[in-house]
Amino acid sequence: MRNFFLHKLACLATIGLLHGCLLFQPSAPARPPDRDASQNRSLPAAYHYSLGVLNLLNENSAEAVSEYEKARHFDPDSTFLAAELAMLYGERGSFEKALALLNDILKAHPRDVEVHFLLAGLYANIKDHPNAVRAYQTVIALDPKHMPAHLYLGAVYAEQKDFQNALDTIRKLLDIDPDHAIGRYYLAKILTELKQDDEAEKELKKVLDLRPSFEAALTDLGALYEKQKKYTLAIGIYDHIAKTYPGRVRIRIRMADLLLREKRDAEADQVFGEILRQSASNKDIALTIGLIYLERERPDRAVDLFGKLIVSYPDDQKIRYLLAAAYSDKSQTRQALELFAQITPGSDFYVNARTHAATILKKEGRPDEAVKTIREAIALKTDAPGLYLFLCSLYDEKKDYVQAEKVLREGLDVLPKSTELFYSLGVLYEKTDRFEDSIKLMRQILAINPDHADALNFIGYSYADRNIRLNEAEELIQKALQLKPGSAYIIDSLGWVYFRQNKLGKAIELLKEAAGLQPDDVAISEHLGDAYARNGNLKEALEIYQKTLKLNPDSKTLPGKISDLLKK
């Protein structure tokens, strides 16, 4: 929405000036002029004005200003020349001169509607919204049916996010002219910004009833259908645009992307194929299509497309990286690793290439090579916490907790306020039975960021799990839940606090909610089973335990709990 109104306001001065060009007339003199004096004055003015126009046609605006100023010297009473000069000042960025000149005109002609309109457009263009609003309101007061003033006043309100006044203004315009297509289009844009999608859809359809080929309205209606996940309707709109305006490549690309979402792969391939044939030399279009194929899990097509591009652009590191990523998605990891290795340290894609390669090596059970690869990335980019976290995870999988801690400490030396690194170190301490140290680290995080929901939850759950400081645990977790409403893990923590406090009704309610959000999380499910068991809901507890054991057959606690229930 913001871009729409910025675009309109950027054009505002020019549009307003065009109105001025067409409508300004030389002012009527206060007394009959001397015929000879008038002719002597107007002929030189016309001459210099004509030279100014010629200079504008030759894109020499500086000379045009000079000639207009000379013309006005010979005819100082002409509002037409004054407005033309003000217009040119505005176009060249001399806004103070333009404003001064327009205000001078209005001193002599305070009811000149089009000068007020031009002044309003200039204020809007320099983002002086209060004065723009006042100037447009003056235009409307002088001419209540001045449609452009209503339209642009609504746009200025919308630019300030004052959507209620924007709506009221545009609706007044539509009261005057219900068939004003641009007004209805503005109304639809404002309604979209206010998330009143159904009303916006109705207005866009009314616009298209008035102007069936209004491209912007068609495009916005298609985007609205996309937002509502009405992909079939969006495809229909984009297909109509593509047929009406055959050169709209981006619209055809969006249509093909939606066809892939709808599993209409053959149709999407046909559209993409036509685009690629028609834009054979356009690398950016080919890259865009390749990325869509990657995102929509069609790595075979992406490999084919990027493979052709790399032949044409062998030094393009982005294409090489994307080709490697496509091979990786296609499970052709040898080719992927070879291509990632070809990306040099000077490339913007080097760190991502090393990280992606390390991910492949980790999955293939080659942790030492993965460590070496991610180390190469860290050597080039020392200030990326994600790289240290990745390297830590590699050591963690090897159960080399000493090295894992060293890596996190190494990262904290470079990034001493990284809450991500502190949090991971706290989790590592908890895993290695350093409970007090883990809590100290979490409190360090809260000193940096008191609203760190995960640190609050960590401390609260740790206390609940150890059945200590339960009131403080409840307070911490409640705050975490306010910061991250709907988080299954935080809801589980609060449920576990209530379990420890023997508030079993509350515990079961929250643990059921958490299990519904994360049905495959074995810890949450086991907590729910424990709450049912303590509350005497033995049948429900047994069902939960048995289901959870299927998800986690290596559990050390579930077999005993199931056995105990079966004995009762």
Summarize the structure.
With 568 residues, this protein is mainly alpha-helical.
Secondary structure tally, helices = 32
**Shape type:** elongated
Any idea what the radius of gyration is?
34 Å
* End-to-end separation: 64 Å
- Taken as a percent bin, the fraction of beta residues is under 5%
Q: Supply the helix-strand structural class.
A: mainly alpha
Low-confidence stretches: 1-40
Tell me the major beta sheet: none
Number of strands: 0
Q: Helix coverage percent of residues?
A: over 70%
Mean pLDDT: 91
Features:
single chain; 568 residues; mainly alpha
Describe the 3D structure.
The protein has helices at residues 2-23, 35-57, 61-74, 79-91, 95-108, 113-125, 129-142, 147-159, 163-176, 181-193, 197-210, 215-227, 231-244, 249-261, 265-278, 283-295, 299-312, 317-329, 333-341, 350-363, 367-380, 385-397, 401-414, 419-431, 435-448, 453-465, 470-483, 488-500, 504-517, 522-534, 538-551, 558-567. By secondary structure, the chain is mainly α. Helix 9 runs antiparallel to helix 10 (181-193) and helix 18 (317-329) runs antiparallel to helix 19 (333-341). The longest helix has 23 residues, at 35-57. It is 78% helix and 0% strand. It starts with a helix and ends with a helix. It contains 32 helices and no strands.
Q: What is the element layout, followed by pairings?
A:
Layout: H1 2-23, H2 35-57, H3 61-74, H4 79-91, H5 95-108, H6 113-125, H7 129-142, H8 147-159, H9 163-176, H10 181-193, H11 197-210, H12 215-227, H13 231-244, H14 249-261, H15 265-278, H16 283-295, H17 299-312, H18 317-329, H19 333-341, H20 350-363, H21 367-380, H22 385-397, H23 401-414, H24 419-431, H25 435-448, H26 453-465, H27 470-483, H28 488-500, H29 504-517, H30 522-534, H31 538-551, H32 558-567
